[in-house]
Amino acid sequence: MIQKKIYEKLSDLRDNGGKVSVTLYQLMREEGFTVDKADLIRCADLLGKQYHYQQALDIYEFMEKLKMPLSASQHGVRIDCIAQTKGVSVAETYFNSLDHRFKTQSTYRKLLK
C-alpha cells in the first residue's frame, strides 16, 4: 500500500516537474510515511521499466544521501539509469568508482548494453 502511494507520487513527477527527494521528504514528514529501502528499490525498478530513468536515478541518489547500501545488482540498475540519462561515459565513470566487489559480470554487462 505504501509502495503504491510512493510510486504514484513519483511517477507523477515526470509530468509536473517535481523533485524526487522533495517528494520523498514530504511523504516522510507531512504524511508520516516510513520509506524503507525495499520500497525505494521497488519504485526505482517500476519507474525504470516505464522508461522513467531520471526518476529511478533520483531514487538511487536519494538512497545514497541516506547512506543506504546497494547490492551489485542494484548498482547495475543504477548504471543503466545513468547510461540512459547522462550517457555511457558517465555510467562508466560510476562503474569505475565502485568497490571491486560490486564490479560483477552483472554490473559490467549493464555498460555493454
From TrEMBL:
One of its GO terms (cellular component) is mitochondrion. Belongs to the PPR family. P subfamily. This is Uncharacterized protein. It comes from Brassica carinata.
